[in-house]
Amino acid sequence: MTDVSPDIRDRLIVALDYPNVGAAEALVWQLGDAVSFYKVGLELTVGGGLDLAADLIDAGKKVFLDLKMHDIGNTVEKATAAAAERGVSLLTVHAYPQTMAAAARGAKGSALQVLGVTVLTSYDEADLAAAGYAQGVTETVRRRAIQAQEAGIAGVICAPTDAAMVRAATSPDFQIVTPGVRPAGSAAGDQKRFATPADAMAAGANRIVVGRPITGAADPSAAARSILEELAKAAG
Ligand SMILES: O=c1ccn([C@@H]2O[C@H](COP(=O)(O)O)[C@@H](O)[C@H]2O)c(=O)[nH]1
């Protein structure tokens, strides 16, 4: 593989969706220097992932703690401050104005970037309507991205198919991180709003999150390298 720059490498976040630390560590070991950014989400957190997150940070990797926090302001503020203390790079909260404002207070003065989860990439129009939202996916994502910017957090999580619209509605330094990324030919699974790595970047995503296309591949290392090459090509 052609060597990719550190900047391109930092744009790929690999989701460590495993039930225990041992399985996650095995993947990190396998991927080696090719991957610099890992996501610890709900499944691994329950399986002891916070200790692994600390080890990854100590080893020079970046960590995205995808906890999708949503609670009263005091709790969100203190939990965000605790994540900042741990040296985590990215943290998610639900994109509700009160929640995002509390997280912004908790992250203040730290390097932690808080991202608001707009509309899950596993939701389509019918899922959003069933959850009681009258506005469609695009309008809900747009409104939440603007509210995220107003709340003073770093950016949002949205689908790659929303990224161009969010980029147009927010300032150039607003961070757009997109899960729901599928290399051509890979299975969508439960993702309903998804696109390829190159299309996500072209639409304005700063970073992409990829789980199963790497963790479920016969050769995870080759899968990650292929995605990095696609990102490098898309960046020109
Ligand atoms: O809207 C969202 C928010 C978070 N995720 C998380 O990203 C990864 C995607 O994993 P894949 O295996 O590549 O589908 C996963 O950890 C989700 O919890 C998301 O998919 N959509």
Give an overview in words.
Residues 11-227 form the Orotidine 5'-phosphate decarboxylase domain. The active site is at 66 (for ompdecase activity), 68 (proton donor), 68 (for ompdecase activity), 71 (for ompdecase activity). One of its GO terms (biological process) is 'de novo' UMP biosynthetic process. It comes from Azorhizobium caulinodans (strain ATCC 43989 / DSM 5975 / JCM 20966 / LMG 6465 / NBRC 14845 / NCIMB 13405 / ORS 571). Catalyzes the decarboxylation of orotidine 5'-monophosphate (OMP) to uridine 5'-monophosphate (UMP). Helix content is 46%, strand content 16%. The protein has an eight-stranded parallel β-barrel with strand order 1-2-3-4-5-6-7-8, surrounded by six helices. Helix 5 (73-85) packs parallel to helix 6 and helix 6 (97-107) runs parallel beside helix 8. The chain has helices at 6-9, 21-31, 42-46, 49-58, 73-85, 97-107, 125-130, 137-151, 163-169, 197-202, 212-215, 220-235; strands at residues 12-15, 37-40, 62-69, 90-94, 113-117, 155-157, 175-178, 207-210. It contains twelve helices and eight strands. It has a single domain, classed as Alpha-Beta Barrel (TIM Barrel), CATH 3.20.20. The chain has 236 residues and is α/β, with parallel strands linked by helices.
